[in-house]
Every structure is written in C-alpha cells, then in structure tokens.
Amino acid sequence: MIQIAIIAGMNEQRVFIFIGNSGCGKGTQAALLREKMEAQDMEILRLELGDKFREFWQKSGYTAEKSNELATSGSLQPEFLAIHIWSHTLIDFFDSNKHLIADGVPRRIREAKVLDGALRFYGIEKPTIVYLNISPEVAKERMLARGRTDDDMIAIQTRLDWFETEVVRTLDFLQADDYYNFIEIDANKTIEEIHADIMNKAQI
C-alpha cells in the first residue's frame, strides 16, 4: 500500500514515502523514480515490502505459513512482522551514501511511529509523503487486470476495506505532522501523467 524513497542529493538526503491503495501503481511509480535517480548517478537501495513478504512466504516455518495465510485471505500483515522485515533491510543495507526507494510501509499508525523514529535517527529532513489517491473502482479494475493469484474478488475487497479502516488513519497521522511534506497525486490518471505530477510536486 505504501512506498518510500529516500533520495540523497549533494549533502542532503530526501525521503519520499509513497502511500496508496492496492492497484494505485506504487511499484510502477517507484521504478520510474528509481530510473530518474539513477540517471543522476544516485546509488539506490530498493525496499519493496510486498516482494520481501513473498520471499518470506517461500520459507518453511510456522510464522511464514501463518503470514501466507493472511496474505491469501487479503488480510493485513501484523505490524511486528512488517517492521521486522523492513527494519532489517535498513539496518543491513542503508547508509549515508545510498538513496532508498521502498514500498509497503507504513500501513498502521504504530508502524508509522517506528518508521518516524528510524527516519529521525538517520537524520532525514522533511520527508515527502506522496499519496497516490485512486478511486476504489479503478483500484479494483487494475488489481483484477494484473492477474495475481491472490487477487480474487474477496481478497481485493478486503484490501480495499482495510485501506479505509487502517491506512487512511495512518495518512491522517502523517499529514498532521509538519515534519513531513505531504503531497497528493491523482492516481486515476495514466502512468505518464502520474509520474509527471510526482516529479513536479516533489520538485525532483
């Protein structure tokens, strides 16, 4: 649901946190942002939480099995597991010379508070929240069109529902904190239009 990009330019690290409903195109927009950054000789650390979870589900073990069951039903993963996965990636691979693009965090307020602490620990100034606002109807169409095995109608509706009950509260929490620069993007548009809006509003 959510994507983060930390861009370090000159002596400054900038952070972009992408948040949006399933189907809003976070992964696509993160890839385009990465291309733009790498074209400027920026070293990127990519953290895509969805992919990290899919790798985790391939492992054997009680926790991986229970997590996979949640994913199959379209339910939200617990904060402790999401934090475990993305925080280890930051601890193991992030440093002052790298730029980070990530997605899938934070989804809940408690997770947002942990992420907030991490960004402040790394000395990131004025992270940018990029909210990819997509209508439920368009989101549903896009999820069905991508043809993933876990994108059945019940799971899709569950994701749409918990975005409204959980992630929107997280958005409100982040928007209310002046530590962040909050921008909203119309994600019902084409890929190219969305990308152009992000580049313009985020001043990249």
Question: Proportion of β residues?
Answer: 15-25%
Give the helices and strands as they follow along the chain.
EEHEHHHEHEHHEH
Write down how many β-strands occur, each being a DSSP E stretch of 2 or more residues: 6
Please give the radius of gyration in angstroms. 16 Å
| Tally of contiguous helical segments | 8
CATH homologous superfamily descriptor: P-loop containing nucleotide triphosphate hydrolases
Q: Structural class of the secondary structure composition?
A: alpha/beta
Number of domains: 1
Residue share in helix: 40-55%
Give the N-terminus to C-terminus distance in angstroms. 22 Å
Q: In CATH's first tier, which class applies?
A: Alpha Beta
Major sheet attributes: 6 strands, mixed
In spatial order, strands of the major sheet run: 3-4-1-2-5-6
Seen as an oligomer or otherwise, the chain set is single chain
CATH architecture assignment name: 3-Layer(aba) Sandwich
User: Do you know the CATH topology?
Assistant: Rossmann fold
Low-pLDDT regions: none
Instruction: Round the mean pLDDT to the nearest integer and report it.
Output: 89
Describe the structure in your own words.
Strand 1 (2-9) and strand 2 (12-20) form a beta hairpin. The protein has helices at residues 26-38, 49-57, 62-73, 79-93, 109-121, 136-146, 153-175, 191-201; strands at 2-9, 12-20, 44-48, 99-103, 128-133, 181-186. With 204 residues, it is α/β, with parallel strands linked by helices. Helices cover 52% and strands 19% of the residues. It starts with a strand and ends with a helix. Helix 2 crosses helix 3. It has one domain (2-201): Rossmann fold, CATH 3.40.50.
